Every structure is written in C-alpha cells, then in structure tokens.
Amino acid sequence: MAPSTSSAITLSINGEKYPLTVDHRTSLLDALRERLDVTGTKKGCDQGQCGACTVLIDGRRSVSCLQLAVAAEGREITTIEGMADGDQLHPVQQAFLDLDGYQCGYCTPGQICSAVAVIEEHAAGWPSAATDDVRPEAGPPPLTADEIRERMSGNLCRCGAYVSIVEAVARAAATRTGSSTQADPGARTGTGTRTSTGTGAEVAA
Amino acid sequence: MKEFGYQRVHDVPGAVALLGADPDARFLGGGTNLVDLMKTGVERPARLVDVRELPLDDIESTPDGGLRIGATVTNSDLAAHPEVRRSYPALSQAVLAGASGQLRNMATVGGNLLQRTRCGYFADVTKPCNKRAPGSGCPAIEGEHHNHAILGAGDHCVAVHPSDMGVGLAAFDAVVHYETADGPGELPFSEFYLPVGDTPHLETALPAGALITGVSLPPAQVAAHSRYRKVRERASYAFAIGSVAAALDVSDGVVREVRLAFGAVASRPWRARRAEEVLTGAPADAETFAAAADAELAAARPLPHNAYKVDLMRNLVVAELTRLTEEVAR
User: Fold this and answer.
1) Which of A99, B8, B30, B230 has its CA 20 to 30 A from that of B271?
2) Does the keyword Lipoprotein apply (chain B) (predicted)?
3) Does B308 touch chain A (CB under 8 A)?
4) Which of residues 181-200 of A touch B (CB under 8 A)?
5) pLDDT tens readout for residues B84-101
6) Model's pTM, two decimal places?
C-alpha cells in the first residue's frame, strides 16, 4: 500500500500553535510563507547556501528551506517576527538599524536570526573555525571581527553590507545581558530547557 | 520533488524495522544533504523514516579512555564538546571547518558519513554519472574536474567525498557502529567506504537497511596534539579543495607517532598510511615531511585540471607537520 504523502500537523511558531495539513514535500520555509502568511522569513537560494531563510528551531539557528515542515512538528520555531518584545526591538535588531546593517533588507531577517544565535553560541563557549586553539583550557575566544565574519558566513548579503553587519553583531554582543534572547545553544530536541524571558517566556508557555 | 511517506521513530529497533530492506526508503537525519538532493531529483525516496529523535544524541567517554559519539549528535554538539576539543582537537576543527553554523546545527554525525559527493555532474540529473546512473559514463574525466580526485579513482568516477568530519575520523581510527534487523555490527573506518573500482554507485560497506547508531574513537594520546587545515576557494563556507588532519608526537627530534589523513582528494577520507610509515622513527624535519608526502602522493593520478592538488597536498603536509613540531618544541 502506498504510504500517505501528507500529514495533519501542528507547528509551534513564536509561541503560537498553527494546525495545518502539509504535503510532506513542504519545507518549513514554504509552510511559513505560503501557508501561514508568516512572511518575515525570506527565500533566497532554497538550497541551504544563502541563509536568507534562517530561523531558530528549539533555540538553534537552522535554514528553514532544508527543514521539512512535517519534521518540525513538536519543535519550537522562532522567526524574525518573534524577536521583538512588543514594541521593544531585540538588541540585534536595534543594532542593525542603528548601524545600517543592510541595504535592500532581503537577507536581513536571516542575518538577524543568525546573529542572535551567534551571540548565544559564543557566550556558551563554542569555538569556530576562526578560533586558533579550540581546547577548552584555552578559554572562550574573544568575539573579534574575524570570529564574527566566520560565524556569520552562512548568511550571504548580495548588497555587500558585511562591514556594517559585523559592527552590528559586535555591538549587540557587547550589550548582551544574557537574559533576553530566544536563542539557546544548549537546547536539544526533546530535552531542551528554555530559560528565555520576554517573548521567550511566552514561547515557553 | 516526488511525493513520499513520512514516519518518525523513537527507538532503534523500530527504525530498523520500519526501513526494512525497502530500497526506496531513506533514513532522514538533519536533511541538509538528503532534502537538497530530493529537490533536484537525485534522490527520489518513496518513504522517509525520521531518525532525528532517536536516543543517540550523547557523547560518552568509554572505559578504555576513548569516546563514543551517537549518530544523531549534531555537528555543532560534536565540535563544541569539551572532550572532543581536548582529546581530538583536529576533529573539532574539521567539523567547524565544514558548512555553516545553521547547517552544523541541523546535520548529524550519521548523516555526515553518508552524505553524497558535490560533483556537479552527480547533482545534475540531465547529465550522465556512473555514481547516480550506473553505466551512463563520467563526464567529469573529460570535463569539469578541477576539484576532483587524485588518489584512488579510476576510469569510472573521479568524485571526491566532501566530508571534513570524516577526515578527522579517518585519522583517529574511528569505528562505525550500526544496527540491522539481524542485530548490531561495526566497521572500522578504513573499511567503511568501498573502493571506487567499477561500482562508484556502491559507496559504503553498510548492509542494506542498516542504521548507523554511532561512531567510536579509540584512545590515542597523539590525537591530543592534532590540527586540521582546510584549503578552499573562499575563506569560509565552502567545500575543501584539499585538507589535512595531522597528529604528531615528537621527542628528541624524532617522530614517535603520527596520524595523517587527507580530504577532498579521493572518493573517501584518505588515510595517508604510506606517509605515516615514512615519518615514524624519522627526524622531524621539513625534508622528512616532504618525503613522506611524496611517498603518499606517488600514487596520485591527477587529471589536466586538478594536478595542482598534488603540490597543494604536499605543501599542506609539510606546513601542518612543521607547525605541530614547533608546538611540541614550545
């Protein structure tokens, strides 16, 4: 017997539940944009190469174009729409605005989602390919411009706003309080604990 | 994309039973390669069995002092794990050198081992490709092959394995653990990937329907002093054109122990055993390092547009071993 090729699922996006029936071929990106009208997340290459579609899944940045919607059921999805706390922009959003971390703006939702997670990953002590000594005894690497460029390399900007993007990420990282972000590099499927406040508290509820 | 069924599993026996020996079913991990290949029509599964929630996401120290890494551990968790960074730093560096932060969060260890080549002809279903469509030919040999194999290839396929992680695993004698309906099994990394021969479509020695459950690393003191270096066409977020994982133990100016593996030069991560033989017990100097690289690369059969890789790999070996030697001396 041929298997069913669609499923009724519920997606959890920015703290809201969205029941829908999806053809299994539907990417999370297409489910967000075409089915649920959550259009802040942008489609660039649709091949996992540009980062425009970056969202947080269980607190970790991911490309939603290679994430099947059906496989995202039961996981907490945070998009650019879930970053601000009411009218209070996320510090990364504010830094991108203040420092012109964009030109046309198309890649910006993905850049911001990615940057929010980059700051948390760095705060958790994760090394990167720009880190000379990855041994834990070497301590966490300072978040230099080289570190930011490497960690943000999954997000392409065809306008070439990289100089300002690096500055914005550095400024937002410097103002990080450690309590008001949706990204959680410690989170894991099924076992992740969410400790976010602000919008994150609504997400956890 | 062809329509497909989808099932999520939560235990290993259930996963193995669901996949069965159905050649049209695939395990889905992070999906960063499989979903991409489904979009282009290279992969056309009738069913996906989602294994991402299997309880295989731990990294544990083993009684003998090694590590056991679960198959659904993400690349990010592997690279960030303190014991990996302490005892096998080249493995952490290799993983960090691959893909992007987003993809490393999604991708899993098991999936990394089973990812497919990024050869452009393999990815283009309108072109012949012996790996994708056995017997149809290999246009890369006469065509675009600047990033193709120089070692272990032949007349049927010159594609390279794209993994960085695998180069680290090859250097440290990893063992791949799997489960089938008949029970568990394991394969040493050196036997995990099959020689290309005239069957480039047969890539691994895994039995049909097997689920990779994890990878173990035996203890190796030399691994604590290791580095991974990757050369690519841009500074980040690109596949290697050549890479080296190297571990070195030097005392009194003599190489006591060495591990050396190459990436992006063959259909599989390439353990450079001939080079290791030349190095072991020899003076730790640039002359020996070059001779060791030459011994390994003597078997290279470059094509017109990838002969640069022979020099590239030779220089990489000398540079990385020199750097490791200098670090020992400090």
Assistant:
1) B30
2) no
3) no
4) 185, 188-190
5) 999 999 999 999 999 999
6) 0.95
